[in-house]
Amino acid sequence: MSGFVFKQFKVEHDHCAMKVSTDGILLGAWANLSGAKSLLDIGTGTGLLALMCKQRSNELDITAVEIDESAHTQALQNIANSPWPTISIKHQTIQSFSSEVKFDVVISNPPYFNHSLKGENTARNTARHTDSLSFEELINAFKRLSHSRSRFNLILPSVEGALFIELATQNGLYLNTHCQVKATPNKDISRSLMTFSYVKSDLESSTLCIRNLDNTYTADYIALCKTFYLKM
In what residue span(s) does the Methyltransferase small domain sit (predicted)? Predict the structure, then answer.
């Protein structure tokens, strides 16, 4: 089976460089969508984040942008086969994307390898490396496509997350919520779930552990993701 079956939709990912992953599921379940009417998903890949956010808030008007042609085609199919065929998927770079609507929420599971060795798969390199979308460009895209009350949700590995926080702060954004994720209780923190905005607030910090030592999902992870996983 090539696809990933969720409770309310299925995601095929055989033509996408970046497959359905725990990172994407975490962000889609965790992102702050409260009060939002419009959402932009930057680098949608399979369409996973757009679909998860639509399941969480049916009122959301969602636009997703994807640079890779194969991923764009697959996202279109995943959206068309879902209960929410009105999600709009654009095939272009976020740098060239413009919108009259300023989005209430922007969400992204962005490329993050800055200097690591590249493989031979060009699509996977584009999806994983920041050459096609630097952190600076990502922040600029958020600033250009948002309004004063907009929020920006994203997930990054911890080291890159720290770099992103520094860069975002230099660009007038504030980190409002930070959830640090570890795979198991005895592993180091590996991921940062972050919400930024233009509004300074007390930082809401938390830690989330995905699996117990016996490899079962933790109660926290189940509480976050059970509305999506088929068998949870």
Answer: 36-121
Candidates 47, 137, 140, 32; CA nearest to 88 is: 47
Q: What's the CA gap between 94 and 193, in Å, rounded?
A: 21
Strands in the chain per DSSP E = 3-5, 10-12, 38-42, 61-66, 88-91, 103-108, 146-157, 174-182, 189-197, 204-209
Residue 223 backbone dihedrals phi, psi, to 5 degrees: -60, -35
Distance, in Å, from the CA atom of 185 to the CA atom of 190, rounded to the nearest integer, reads 12
Query: What band does 230 get if pLDDT is binned at 50, 70 and 90?
Result: confident
Residue type present at position 217:
Y
Q: Could you give the CA distance from residue 118 to residue 153 in angstroms, rounded to a whole number?
A: 27
Express each pLDDT in 129-141 by its tens digit.
Answer: 445 678 999 999 9
Rounded Cα–Cα distance for residues 128 and 122 (Å): 10
Residues 171, 117: Cα–Cα separation, whole Å? 29
- Cβ-contact 25, 53 below 8 angstroms: no
- Per-residue pLDDT of 157-190, as tens digits, reads 999 999 999 999 999 999 999 999 999 999 999 9
